[in-house]
Amino acid sequence: MIENPGQAARKNAVRDLILGVVFFILLSVVLFGVVFGIPLTGTPKLSEVNTATVSFDGKTVEVTPEDMQIAVDLAGGLKRWVGECDQTMPKAVITYQMKDGTEVVVGADKDTIYKDGKYYAPKGTNGELFQNVVEGIFFGE
Questions:
Q1: d(CA 85, CA 96)
Q2: CA–CA separation, 74 and 114 (whole Å)
Q3: Where are the alpha helices (DSSP H) in 1-141?
Q4: If 0-12 CB within 10 Å is exposed, 13-18 middle and 19+ buried, where does residue 76 land?
Q5: Do residues 36 and 79 lie in contact, with contact meaning Cβ atoms separated by under 8 Å?
Q6: Among 6, 15, 20, 123, which one has the highest count of C-beta atoms within 10 angstroms of its own C-beta?
Q7: Element (DSSP H or E) covering residue 101
Q8: In this structure, how many other beta carbons lie within 10 angstroms of the beta carbon of residue 55?
């Protein structure tokens, strides 16, 4: 069977277009990660959290229902980076008691992001922001 040259050209054009779109999407994801950092995975969603406690510099308080959205958003806003970081527990830590009975622990400071036993290097200043917001909102005088 002889293939029409115009039909072969259209098939090649469609294939090239699809490959171009896939390449562009992959490049966009990589560039996003380089510029903004890699989002911390497995952070809790508001609908999944039952209660939460916040610890800062040895003091602990219970998160009120009014402040629960802030506590959840703080963990969701953390971006990590590849590389070495301090293996010490950050001063600011939020422990989420989930509705399914599990516990998620997230903490951060300017040098470290901690989540459930793993330490990550923060991208930019979001670890320091986490610590400052925890201190200001939950432990402000």
A1: 24
A2: 13
A3: 5-36, 68-76, 126-133
A4: middle
A5: yes
A6: 123
A7: none
A8: 20
